[in-house]
Amino acid sequence: MGDDLEKPKEPLSECRVRVVGGYGDIVGLLDSVKEEIYRYNVLASKKGYYLKPVHKVYKPKGKSGKTIYEYYGRYWWKRLRGRLIYSGTTKPRVLPNPPENPLEGLSIVREGEDVILDCFVYEKYRWIFKDKKVVREL
Question: Do the Cβ atoms of 29 and 118 come closer than 8 Å?
Answer without folding.
Answer: no
